[in-house]
């Protein structure tokens, strides 16, 4: 697997690259946000994962993550010393697929890299069929992962799309919070609960349809299909 390592500390990058190489990764090292974005042109350039340090010299790592997500769906794992829940939520809301706090165990990092890679393959296969979901003015195209409202394209993050697609497959059915977290984030991490709330709020705002996703107090969420 090709991996893009975005890390401004050459010593850290060299040590980590050596470990990753021993485990079969072909590592490309970018020392700044701009180098990372250039490496991802066009369309991710075949990278399986981006390992993104947030402490970069030219741009904030969160800003870089947002730009990466606009260019490619390549999984992004943020690596940072910022361990507070708010920082994690912010990173995930920008489209990161996982978040690793320094200092980390190398074995755990490798496991997370493989995990997001497996999820990506599974999701791409699941959405590979030629199908779409129509909910009133909302059209969800699964193969292209595109959402439109009254013909206008709505820009969603990877997880926002996955969340909307999950709920839209069974309109009116209540999805438990634990079920959503398991199917969309593939984890039971306790901090993901707040992330789910953030993603629901973001979807309501972006789609300009606050009633589309209904909160079922104490249980979870369901999608209320609008009138055509």
Automatic annotation (TrEMBL):
Record-annotated Response regulatory domain positions: 2-117
UniProt key word Phosphoprotein: yes
Protein name: Sensory transduction protein RegX3
Residue numbers carrying 4-aspartylphosphate: 53
Residues annotated as domain OmpR/PhoB-type: 130-225
Portion annotated as DNA-binding: 130-225
Keyword Ligase carried by entry: no
Organism domain of life: Bacteria
Organism: Streptomyces cylindrosporus
Native organism taxonomy: Bacteria, Bacillati, Actinomycetota, Actinomycetes, Kitasatosporales
PANTHER family: REGULATOR OF RPOS (PTHR48111), SENSORY TRANSDUCTION PROTEIN REGX3 (PTHR48111:SF72)
Keywords: DNA-binding, Phosphoprotein, Transcription, Transcription regulation
């Amino acid at each position: 697997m090709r991996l893009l390592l975005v890390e401004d500390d050459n010593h850290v990058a060299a040590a980590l690259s050596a470990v990753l190489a021993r485990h079969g990764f072909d590592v490309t090292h970018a020392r700044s946000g701009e180098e990372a974005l250039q490496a991802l042109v066009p369309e991710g350039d075949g990278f399986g994962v981006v390992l993104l340090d947030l402490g970069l010299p030219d741009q904030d790592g969160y800003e870089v993550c947002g730009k990466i997500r606009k260019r490619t769906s390549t999984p992004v794992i943020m690596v940072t010393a910022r361990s507070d829940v708010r920082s994690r939520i912010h990173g995930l809301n920008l489209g990161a697929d996982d978040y690793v706090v320094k200092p980390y165990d190398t074995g755990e990092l490798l496991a997370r890299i493989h995990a997001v890679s497996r999820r990506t393959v599974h999701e791409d296969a699941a959405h590979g069929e030629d199908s779409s979901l129509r909910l009133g003015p909302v059209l969800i195209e699964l193969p292209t992962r595109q959402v439109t409202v009254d013909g206008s394209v709505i820009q969603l993050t990877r997880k926002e799309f996955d969340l909307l697609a999950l709920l839209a497959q069974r309109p009116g059915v209540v999805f438990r919070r634990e079920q959503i977290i398991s199917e969309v984030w593939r984890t039971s991490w306790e901090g993901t609960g707040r992330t789910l709330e953030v993603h629901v709020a973001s979807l309501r705002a972006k789609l300009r349809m606050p009633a589309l996703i209904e909160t079922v107090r104490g249980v979870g969420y369901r999608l209320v299909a609008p009138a055509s």
